[in-house]
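Re: that chain you flagged

S.,

Sorry for the slow reply, it's been a week of failed gels. I finally had a moment to sit down with the sequence you sent. For the record, here it is as I used it:
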Amino acid sequence: MKNNDVNKTQNCLSKHLKDEEIYELSDFFKILGDSTRLKILWALDRHEMTVTEISTLLGMTKSAVSHQLKTLKDNKLVNYRKQGKNAIYELDDLHISTIIETAQIHLKEEK
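Prediction finished late last night. Pasting the structure tokens below so you have them in one place:
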């Protein structure tokens, strides 16, 4: 790549993605990079669930699932509503589902 092309690319990048956005995207993908959190998101993509249901499905303790759900909730990937004594978790929005499904399509295309 010529210096002029590199400069054009750098200018284009700096106009569209600011450093703060790059760091936020990087942090977002780090959260998705954890296999346990990805399993939880995958399960919630199918339907809403309680901590007990998730822990049973994944063969994990409720405490471990709750810890991961807090991380997901703090990063706006899941939300919950109270139903009696239970918290019912679901994906925060359809974007999460789309990101996971798009990644799956990408991985299948590589094979």
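What I noticed first: Residues 22 and 44 are 27 Å apart (CA to CA).

Talk soon,
D.
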